[in-house]
């Protein structure tokens, strides 16, 4: 059984809050979630991803997503600090809320809290290559 951590850019297309919010990745994410369930694998979200979604300035969309995302299991005992290896190999990352969230997601991979991180965020993929964990950070399509 695999444990997959979903980044916000995998959750958002899975949970369109209006017809205008359906994205090109929406059918791909729907297939991924079905395959995870059929394979009896586990998928999670990190509290940092929930924090990112709560930063949406569109109040009605934010409130709807908060309800929709509540059905996703939270990663049990998620790392709450960035792993030292990340701090050593990526010493110049910005301290923005988004960047800190990305590094927390990568920490989950580095400390083996999950088997795979699913994201289409190019910045995360670049960091994963620098951390030598790129084979465990998958795009939505590859997952």
Report on the structure:
The protein has about 140 residues and is an alpha/beta fold. It contains seven helices and four strands, in the order E-H-H-E-H-H-H-H-E-H-E. The chain has helices spanning about 10, 25-40, 45-55, 60-70, 85-90, 95-110, 120-130; strands at about 5, 40-45, 115-120, 135-140. Strand 3, helix 7 (about 120-130) and strand 4 (about 135-140) form a beta-alpha-beta unit. The protein is globular, with a radius of gyration of 15 Å.
Short account of what is shown:
With 143 residues, this protein is α/β, with parallel strands linked by helices. The chain has seven helices and four strands, in the order βααβααααβαβ. The protein has a four-stranded parallel sheet with strand order 2-1-3-4, sandwiched between helices.
Average pLDDT figure: 92
Q: Report the C-alpha radius of gyration, rounded.
A: 15 Å
Oligomer: single chain
- N-to-C series of helices and strands: EHHEHHHHEHE
Q: Pick out the low-confidence regions.
A: none
Strand order of the largest sheet: 2-1-3-4
> Alpha-carbon distance between the termini?
14 Å
């Amino acid at each position: 059984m695999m444990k997959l951590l979903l980044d916000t850019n995998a959750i958002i297309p899975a949970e369109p809050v209006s017809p205008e919010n359906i994205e090109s990745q929406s059918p791909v994410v729907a297939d991924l979630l079905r395959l995870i369930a059929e394979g009896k694998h586990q998928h999670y979200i990190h509290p940092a991803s929930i924090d990112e979604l709560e930063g949406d300035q569109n109040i009605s969309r934010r409130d709807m997503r908060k309800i929709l995302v509540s059905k996703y299991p939270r990663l049990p005992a998620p790392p709450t600090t960035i792993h030292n290896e990340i701090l050593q190999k990526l010493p110049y990352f910005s301290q923005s809320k988004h960047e800190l969230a990305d590094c927390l997601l990568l920490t989950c991979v580095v400390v083996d809290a999950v088997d795979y991180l699913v994201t289409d965020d190019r910045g995360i993929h670049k960091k994963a290559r620098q951390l030598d964990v790129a084979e465990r950070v998958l795009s939505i399509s590859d997952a």
